[in-house]
Design a protein that fits this description.
heterotrimer, A mainly alpha (about 230), B alpha/beta (about 300), C alpha/beta (about 450), A: mainly alpha, B: about 300 residues, Rossmann fold, 2 domains, twelve-stranded mixed β-sheet, about 40% helix
Chain lengths: ~230, ~300, ~450
């Protein structure tokens, strides 16, 4: 069971994940149309790229955009959730040990206690996000059941990983659910809203290009305040 | 003298005196009369509704409506005017002064007759008051032909003209007003009263408190009237020259009363005015409000007629 | 088959159809017929396949339903945070639904979509700046308007407006003759005060070709005269085209892309004919958006730009003040507190926010910024055509609360609005809320304070 999960199934999930990303990225770019979008992607491209990069860069920094600044609670939640999620996954000692074993390399790691706090932070942020979704009318009206499901799928590996690491109750059970939920997450990413983990860069970049090429990019005397 | 007369009306009783004068003059001079009523100002951007000038209400604009208003207007004047002669009636929407001036230009009008609000109508709605004030101001300022402004009810009589008061401020526009006044005086064999008022209302240093200064100025002004106007009045002897001091519009009104004026001719060349101040009015409007005599405002040389 | 006469899928292409529409009081019959207008689902579905590609589909799919766009929307804030005004909800419940159902939608949904597309959104594009993913709901709303127009679900005034452009190449029934006549008239009327004032029509190879908004010849001809005076004072070699003088595009507001193309092309043809060095657009926001920003795409300009360089009036004023072509009499600067309303169409969507600031630095002693301003400014409440649509008057009035409060917070009683639409909206705002403000274009203000060279002063002996 364990071997199957970490062997063929792991391969399968990673394959779906990466190929999915690749195909969706290609489809996105191929679907851009200068005439329909009314942005000359291929003329004055440098103006577009510059604003695309700026747009992505500012939105990746906490409180760097007016949007982030005007909604501090959401911004805090957002960054705690995403940074915690990425850092605790990529820099976890245990994950890197597997990398080392299988592929002969690893990336930097953080102490387990830090990973622990990050995981708790992710789970706590997710909880507040759920509460926010239910409490705020402007979010509630947008919410569909799938939004909760996706959030649950996203945090499942963290919850199970946390329980497994601290050996609550049945360790093998938590470990296996951790692996399954992790692989499930990888598989669903390309097919759901979670594809934002890479499409964010395209979508954000596209608007940057739009502003950089067409909407005043070449006339703006003071750089656009994102 | 007047071949084509344009009568601009809001269709309300405040224009009744002006209507009598307009129809009467058209008959007397065998002139063609055109009546224009700009009944609504465009509002709400490009929408098809306008703000009714009389009521301030938002109304729909469509052809039937324009026709209705036209009929109503014609009916009003058939009843009001004793021997009504049919005339062309234009009912339209737009900024009133723009449409009046546009039509006057298009039809090569010789005289515009327009009513002025009087104090009795102060309680009319604010849209109306504001627009009427601005319209009078703008039409009188920009029209290429004389503009006869009829204010008081008592002034609605247009009989013979024995006495014409020409009020001057020595501006270029006043020169044109003089030409018109002189021409009128010759045509009607009336006496021409050339009048100037020295404005002591804006006098921060109170120089005019000094009687000598005032008298100097009066002497100068009389001299100026002589050199500027008398030189152009060869062979015409029925005139008087007077220079008074005070607030110009008050003095003109007083002077007109003393001279039994049948008509006051002056220019209205104020370049531009804050719309808010325009409601209060310039000298011409103040004179219109206070004087029993009708006022003709002339500012521009007569337009060259297209051949 | 539907028996509709006024409300059909066909655009208005001739005078007869236009007059029939105009006769309908406030579109009563038109809207009544709309309840029976059939949706051509096959055409809608084909249209989606042909024109709804990855950008919009990704936007619709990616939306995380986080609600961060809510506070970006003037209509959400003005309507006491009504969740139904959240931009994401507005687009997901309309375009999102149409796309999800692949065009297989009914009359009721289409009419709801119309109420949202024109009655709850002015396409100010502010929400796009507040979405982490950069989902621009204004752009999608505009796309939705295109779909709705093609199916005939468009507000009465918009149908008329689009028809006006198709017939007159102007948003109002102003013909080329009317236009040229108005220019001559203004020349005559103003030449006493401004000796030698000329409004040159169809002069070739001028430095500037000036284009206007049809409202100017129709209702506010002095605006043209003021522009002429300012160009003369600045010593510009300028002209207006006899044909192709109209810069605005209600067709754009209507989602009538064919009409938009015809309109923009008429201006480009004038450029081609007169070969001016630059074009300047009057103080109008959507005119600039339509002819300068979007127009090149409708007409297939590969560069994405107008055939010759184009400036908005505020750019020209800023340049003229900077280079000293126009000099301001320091004693006549605006002394009272004054604020500036940024038009979404050429500020956020055209990058010209600094021009307004530069101009204010020359003409105002006590300039007060609204908060927020520039790229992040709120819509006047009347953009995107909402100003002129009777059906959505209440929505527009309510939507102006944000702008009202922004103006009140500055303490200024004078609001400079270098945009026809905003100017109208702010005027209506005063009429509705009576906050005691005045509003003005730049031209009349500049005319009051600019130093006039001797040769342009009237000769008084």
């Amino acid at each position: 069971m364990y071997n199957f999960l970490t062997g063929p199934l792991a391969w399968f999930s990673f394959l779906v994940f990466f190929i999915g990303i690749l195909i969706r990225s290609i489809l996105y770019i191929k679907g851009l149309d200068s005439n329909l979008d009314r942005v000359t992607y291929k003329v004055n491209t440098s103006f577009g790229i510059k604003e695309a990069v700026r747009s992505i860069f500012y939105w990746l920094l906490p409180f760097a955009t007016r949007g982030w600044r005007t909604q501090p609670l959401m911004t805090a939640l957002f960054f705690i959730f995403h940074i915690g999620l990425l850092a605790s996954t990529l820099f976890l000692k245990a994950h890197n040990m597997i990398l080392q074993e299988r592929w002969g390399f690893s990336i930097i790691t953080i102490p387990d206690v830090v990973s622990d706090y990050l995981t708790i932070a992710v789970l706590a942020a997710a909880l507040v996000l759920i509460i926010r979704r239910m409490a705020l009318a402007q979010v509630r009206i947008l919410t569909k059941p799938s939004d909760y499901l996706i959030l649950l799928i996203s945090i499942a590996p963290f919850l199970t990983g946390f329980l497994a690491f601290h050996q609550f109750g049945n360790y093998p059970f938590w470990m296996i659910t951790h692996i399954i939920s992790g692989e499930l997450l990888l598989v669903v990413i390309p097919f759901t809203k979670l594809s934002h983990c890479f499409l964010f860069f395209f979508s954000r970049g596209q608007l940057g290009m739009d502003y950089g090429i067409k909407r005043g990019g070449m006339k703006r005397r003071k750089a656009m305040a994102w | 003298m007047f071949k084509k007369i344009l009568f601009a009306t809001t269709g309300t009783p405040s224009c009744d005196s002006a209507a009598r004068v307009a129809f009467d003059m058209a008959k007397r001079y065998n002139a063609e009369l055109v009546t224009i009523n700009v009944f609504g100002v465009p509002s709400r951007s490009f929408s098809q509704t306008v703000t009714d000038i009389r009521t301030g209400d938002e109304v729909d604009l469509h052809d039937d409506r324009l026709e209705e208003i036209k009929n109503e207007l014609e009916k009003t004047y058939v009843q009001l005017i004793k021997d009504y002669t049919p005339c062309e009636t234009v009912v339209t929407v737009g900024i009133p002064h723009t449409e009046i001036l546009r039509l006057a230009r298009k039809k090569e009008i010789d005289l515009i007759v327009i009513g002025a609000r009087t104090s009795a109508e102060e309680n009319e709605n604010s849209v109306n008051r504001h627009i009427v004030g601005r319209t009078l101001q703008s039409v009188a300022r920009s029209a290429r032909c004389p503009v006869l402004v009829i204010g008081r009810t008592a002034a609605s009589f247009w009989g013979g003209i024995s006495n014409i008061v020409f009020g001057t401020d020595f501006s270029k526009a006043s020169d044109e007003a003089f030409k018109f006044a002189f021409n009128l005086a010759q045509t009607f064999n009336s006496s021409l009263h050339l009048f100037h008022a020295i404005d002591i209302s804006a006098d921060p240093f109170e120089i005019t408190k000094n009687q000598e200064v005032i008298e100097d100025r009066i002497r100068d002004a009389r001299e100026k009237i002589r050199s500027k106007y008398l030189s152009k009045m060869e062979g015409f002897n029925d005139y008087e020259i007077d220079v008074w001091e005070g607030i110009p519009y008050v003095e003109i009104v007083k002077y007109a009363r003393e001279s039994f004026a049948d008509l006051i001719v002056m220019s209205h060349h104020t370049k531009k005015m804050d719309p808010e101040k325009a409601v209060l009015g310039s000298t011409v409007e103040q004179v219109v409000l206070r004087s029993n005599a009708p006022v003709i405002s002339v500012n521009h040389p007569a337009r060259q007629k297209k051949q | 088959m539907s028996q509709n006469i006024l409300c059909t899928q066909n655009p208005v292409n001739d005078k007869e159809a236009l007059d029939a529409l105009l006769k309908d009081k406030r579109g009563q019959q038109y809207y009544d017929e709309m309840t029976r207008l059939e949706v051509d689902t096959a055409a809608l579905s084909k249209s989606l396949n042909d024109t709804c590609h990855s950008r919009i589909r990704t936007w619709l799919e990616l939306c995380a339903h986080c609600g961060m766009c809510a506070d970006a929307c003037a209509f959400y804030l003005s309507n006491e945070k009504d969740p139904k005004q959240v931009p994401s909800y507005k687009i997901q419940s309309t375009l999102g639904e149409i796309v999800r159902r692949k065009g297989n939608v009914d009359n009721a949904l289409m009419r709801y979509a119309m109420d949202v597309a024109w009655g709850k959104c002015t396409c100010c594009n502010r929400c796009g700046l507040y979405c982490p993913f950069g989902i621009d709901m204004g752009v999608m709303m505009s796309y939705l308007r295109g779909l709705l127009f093609s199916q005939g679900f468009v507000p009465w005034e918009m149908k008329i407006g689009s028809g006006m452009h198709r017939i007159f190449r102007a948003q109002m029934d102003v013909t080329v003759e009317d236009w040229v006549e108005t220019c001559e008239w203004m020349e005559e009327e103003w030449e006493d005060d401004w000796p030698g004032l000329k409004i040159p029509v169809d002069k070739e190879n001028a430095d500037i070709m000036y284009t206007v908004n049809a409202r100017e010849p129709k209702h506010y001809p002095e605006d043209i005269a003021e522009a002429a005076v300012l160009f003369s004072i600045a010593g510009e070699n300028w002209t207006v085209p006899g044909e192709g003088w109209e810069e605005t595009s209600l067709a754009m507001f209507a989602g009538d892309w064919e009409g938009s193309q015809l309109q923009a092309q008429s201006v480009y043809d004038a450029m081609d004919r007169l070969k001016p060095k630059r074009m300047i657009v009057t103080e109008c926001g959507h005119a600039y958006r339509a002819t300068v920003i979007e127009g090149p795409y409708w007409t297939g300009q590969k560069s994405g730009k107008t055939p010759i360089e184009t400036l908005h009036y505020v750019e020209w004023v800023a340049e003229a003040l900077r280079t000293g072509k126009l000099k301001i009499d320091p004693a006549k600067k605006i002394k009272e507190p004054v604020t500036l309303h940024d038009s979404c169409n050429y500020v956020r969507n055209g990058g010209l926010s600094q021009c307004g600031r530069e101009i204010m630095s020359y003409i105002a002693e006590d300039f007060r910024e609204m908060t927020p301003n520039g790229d992040h400014n709120f819509c006047c409440g009347g953009g995107g055509g909402m100003n002129g649509i009777g059906k959505y008057r209440e929505e527009r009035n309510t939507g102006q609360k944000v702008k009202r409060d922004q103006i009140l917070a500055t303490g200024a009683k004078l609001v400079i609005t270098p945009c026809h639409n905003c100017w109208d909206a702010i005027r209506d705002l005063e009429e509705v809320y009576k906050i005691g403000i005045r509003w003005s274009f730049l031209k009349p203000l500049l005319l009051d304070m600019v130093i006039v060279p001797e040769h342009l002063k009237p000769k008084e002996e």
